[in-house]
Design a protein that fits this description.
6-stranded antiparallel sheet, two-stranded antiparallel ribbon
Length: 217
């Protein structure tokens, strides 16, 4: 059984390595994502290596082993199932579910999580549009493009959000965007990428940073 701290490390490593085309993570990058000092991270990396969750040499890059990926996806599965339960069954808003799911994801009962999955009807995606791994560890990865890559005078469907922070999700809701809604790109400023959009008749102006965090098709 892993400690909560070890689980948090594996989940953070999974996210970083998925975003890296080489499937690697750096010590400083990991430390920054966990808001810890590199020296503290190094101590935990030694433990994870001893347990065969990662491949790692001091001052080198970190990669997850097959075992590390299995456990990492298992934690992600629990997190996203709890988010879905909170959102669909308990009327939490999508900017509230992440923090609560962070606590619930450490529950160890496999039976409970499998029953939760069944109760929810085996959902494929969580409230933010992220794929939920199956009990066998199968993940349905969507190939997504970002709103920042959109063209003028085109309409797109929102698939997911990249930033799950409460501040961003509240801003997204204020603009009127939710999963599966349609965004019409009215115009894009050449100078700074500022984008004028319309969602269900509501017009807004959003920044390039905003557009880099909305997945579309």
């Amino acid at each position: 059984m892993l400690s909560q701290t070890e689980e948090n490390y594996l989940k953070a490593l999974l996210k970083i390595t998925l975003d890296n085309e080489h499937g690697e993570a750096g010590t400083n990058e990991l430390a920054a994502s966990l808001s810890l000092k590199p020296a503290t991270v190094n101590d935990m990396l030694k433990k994870l290596k001893e347990k065969q969750f990662i491949a790692y040499e001091k001052y080198g890059k970190i990669t997850l082993t097959a075992l590390g990926k299995k456990y990492g996806w298992g934690i992600v599965r629990k997190h996203r199932l709890w988010e879905t339960f909170l959102f669909e069954k308990l009327d939490f808003s999508w900017d509230e579910v992440h923090e609560v799911a962070e606590q619930l994801e450490h529950i160890q009962s496999v039976k409970l999580i499998d029953k939760l999955d069944q109760f929810l009807g085996y959902p494929s995606f969580d409230p933010h549009g992220d794929p939920i791994p199956t009990h066998k560890g199968v993940v349905k990865i969507q190939y997504k493009k970002l709103l920042v890559d959109a063209q003028e005078n085109e309409t797109y469907k929102v698939l997911a959000v990249k930033d799950n922070s409460s501040a961003f999700l509240q801003y997204v809701a204020k603009v009127g965007i939710q999963l599966n809604c349609h965004i019409k790109v009215k115009s894009i400023q050449t100078f700074d990428g500022m984008m004028h959009i319309e969602v269900d008749g509501k017009k807004s102006t959003v920044s390039q940073k905003f557009a880099q965090n909305i997945f579309i098709e």
